[in-house]
Design brief:
About 2% of the residues have low confidence. The chain has a 6-stranded mixed beta sheet. It has a 5-stranded parallel beta sheet with strand order 2-1-3-4-5, with helices on both faces. It is globular. Among the domains are: 130 residues, 3-Layer(aba) Sandwich (Rossmann fold), CATH 3.40.50; 134 residues, Alpha-Beta Plaits (2-Layer Sandwich), CATH 3.30.70; 53 residues, Arc Repressor Mutant, subunit A (Orthogonal Bundle). By secondary structure, it is of the alpha/beta class. It has 22 helices and 11 strands.
């Protein structure tokens, strides 16, 4: 039975909903009622319901805010809203934020039964996907490895698909809710455009689209507008043909998607080569001079300018990450003999998007280099260092960033990172990754746990990202490691 919490500021309405249908017959059980948003949050944390049926207008914490709190806590709870006719636009906003559906007052028995039946199908699909490691996704992961020589045509032929049109694009989408796709079977044709759809993360779906650019009834952008309206962020590869590299075309869409995550004004980003403007190159050269001469104020001003230039010039995230890593190289070059460089690490573009979310914020993080010298004079006792490491070790499976730890212990990020590097021999991110992967290897020895469950237990939300990370560090995918 799936667990349901009913939320309405009018107790008799909540009671009426609990008695309106035979919940058990549909596969649900009502575990409680709440009459305001704050109480609802407490009951959600206590009872972990699969579903919340909530009034959209409530005093204090309203339905939209309740949904936002659920998402902030990383809960995969499905939410159904009840609204009046006057709140129709409000309900539409809720759907964009990831609500499953909304029902108009007065709620009719048939409408509620239909909604719950559809929701049960979706929840059953989610449960099945969590319980069964996705062999198709594992195959796909291997094929999308940058070293793979697989072509688009060979991949499709190997899976038994025959597409007729000459052109292909990958489209990667991030949604505000968990995606459920029967990826081993889904081949769809819509208005002259045929596509395969597969899940590449808990909230991410990727489409391999086949079409004729000169003869399709609608354009790719029209297709996105009509059929991917729920997606928060979209990345589109350039055009390919069947003899082109599968991994290269996918990576273009991936780069474009992560670029969208760092571009608040660009919901959809198309991959195309972009050349940085001369002014940006000039700022980088000026920054090297400032770093060489240890002019901290000038260096910080240039970092700010570079971050904003990357935004204005609409650079893709892999280019921005390359510029950032170039600056890291400069810092190591000129400050290499001191502890100040120990908190500065080379990054990948997905790390930039997940942990920074904007280019100015990324470059501002380097300011710690110029502010940490004074902190280096602080001397911590062994007990204090042990306390810090124990704090990190007890929370490595949480979404704990270095800044949170530094704030907890009232020290700068630069000094804390330097301390961790001195204590462990690695940077903070590498240390956390090592702890998580070691725990994952231990859990893979437990056959009762699916790979998806292990991914979540060690602190990752994205199954596909974890696969890439695990293979990079261990040499094989988690599924193959389990068989060793």
């Amino acid at each position: 039975m799936y667990r349901v919490l009913i939320v309405d500021d009018e107790p008799w309405v909540a009671y009426g909903l609990s008695k309106l249908i035979n919940w058990e017959e549909l596969g649900f059980t009502v575990v409680g009622e709440a009459h305001d948003g704050l109480t609802a949050i407490a009951l959600i944390e206590q009872n972990a319901p699969d579903v919340v049926v909530s009034d959209i207008r409530m005093p204090g914490l309203d339905g939209i805010e309740l949904l936002e709190e659920i998402r902030k806590r990383g809960l995969d709870t499905s939410v159904i809203f009840v609204s009046g006719y006057s709140e129709f636009q409000y309900a539409q906003q809720a759907l964009k934020l990831g609500a499953f559906d909304y029902l108009l007052k007065q709620v009719e028995r048939g409408a509620l039964q239909d909604t719950m039946s559809r929701l049960k199908e979706m929840l059953d699909d989610k449960r099945r996907l969590r319980a069964e490691p996705d062999s198709f996704l594992n195959d796909l992961f291997d094929l999308l490895d940058p070293d793979s020589k697989m072509t688009i045509g060979a991949f499709l032929a190997g899976k038994g698909y025959r597409f007729e049109h000459p052109h292909y694009r990958f489209i990667s989408c991030q949604f505000p809710y968990a995606t459920v796709t029967n990826i081993d079977q889904l081949s769809v044709t819509v208005e002259g455009i045929e596509y395969l759809s597969f899940r590449t993360g808990p909230n991410q779906t990727t489409l391999l689209v086949n079409y004729d650019e000169s003869g399709a009834p609608i354009t790719i952008l029209d297709f996105i507008t009509l059929h991917l309206s729920d997606a928060l962020h979209i990345g589109i590869s350039s055009r390919f043909c069947s003899s082109d590299s599968l991994s290269k075309s996918y990576q273009e869409a991936d780069i474009a998607l992560f670029s969208s995550l760092c571009s608040p004004d660009s919901r959809a980003v198309s991959y195309k080569d972009r050349t940085p403007a001369p002014e940006l190159t000039g700022d980088i050269l000026q920054l090297e001079l400032a770093v060489k001469e240890q002019r901290a104020t000038r260096a910080k001003d240039l970092l700010e300018a570079i971050g904003h230039s990357c935004c204005r010039q609409d650079l893709l995230i892999d280019q921005v990450t390359g510029i950032y890593n170039q600056l890291v190289s400069l810092i190591h070059k000129y400050y290499g003999s001191g502890n100040v460089t120990q908190n500065i690490e080379y990054l990948t573009y997905d790390h930039v998007a997940r942990h920074y979310g904007s280019y100015p914020k990324l470059f501002r993080s380097l300011e710690e280099v110029f502010e940490s010298q004074a902190d280096m004079e602080i001397v911590l006792s062994n007990d204090q260092v042990k306390e810090i490491m124990a704090y990190i070790d007890s929370r490595y499976s949480e979404d704990l960033i270095l800044g949170d730890v530094a704030k907890h212990f009232s020290m700068s990020v630069g000094y804390l990172s330097s301390l961790i590097k001195k204590k462990t021999g690695t940077g903070y991110s590498e240390y956390i990754t090592g702890k998580r992967l070691q725990r994952a290897k231990e859990l893979l020895a437990e056959p009762r746990l699916s790979v998806q469950e292990i991914v979540q237990q060690v602190g990752y939300k994205d199954y596909f990202y974890f696969n890439k990370l695990f293979k990079k560090h261990v040499g094989v995918t988690p599924s193959k490691f389990r068989k060793i």
